[in-house]
Structure formats: structure tokens, C-alpha cells
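*Target chain*
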Amino acid sequence: MTLPSNFNELVIASEAPNFFKKLIKQLNKDLLYANIDLEFDEDTLPTSLKLVLQETVFHLIESKFPDYLNLLYQVDVSEVKIKQIEDDDTTIIAEKVTFLILQREWQKVWYKNNF
């Protein structure tokens, strides 16, 4: 398995039947467990998913940092990858973290489908 290295690759890799819907279900489950008040409809477009999740991550970083950390823990985003983000702009950090969240969710769904 090769992890998608950017958002476009993630969307292309999610084109298998119902794969993207499963990714949304997994994301919704982890958001619920992290106590984040956000739920995506299964018919959400990939770009909309990215933008809304990115806005939420930005808000969590700016206003509710403990909830942000809880979300990262629940999704199981690699601490090493988070520490590799070297930027002072919260918008860019939120964009990169959003991709890491979606990448990890993609990985979870891929493993469930293949094993």
C-alpha cells in the first residue's frame, strides 16, 4: 500500500465503489469519539469535505487546542508527521493537518477493505 501524498491522489485513490463513503463514515465516527460537533453527509463532495474539515481544524487550533489534540489522538495521526510541519501560519498548518487526518482515515478504510 502506498499512501496518497496529496489531496488529489487521495481523491483518486478513493474512487473505488463506496470507498469515499466509507472514508466519510470513518471520519464521522472519529469526530464523534473526539467530541467534535461536526458530521458529514455521505454525499459530500471531496472538495467540500476538505474545506469544512480544514475550517474546523483551524478553529480548533485557534480556540480549542485541547479538542484539537484530542481529535489528532482519536484519528491516530502520527506525532512525528505533526512535528514535521514547520510553519507559523495557522492556515497552512490547518491545511497540512487536514490532509494528514484524511490520509490516516483513508489508511484505516483501506486496511478494513483489504484485510
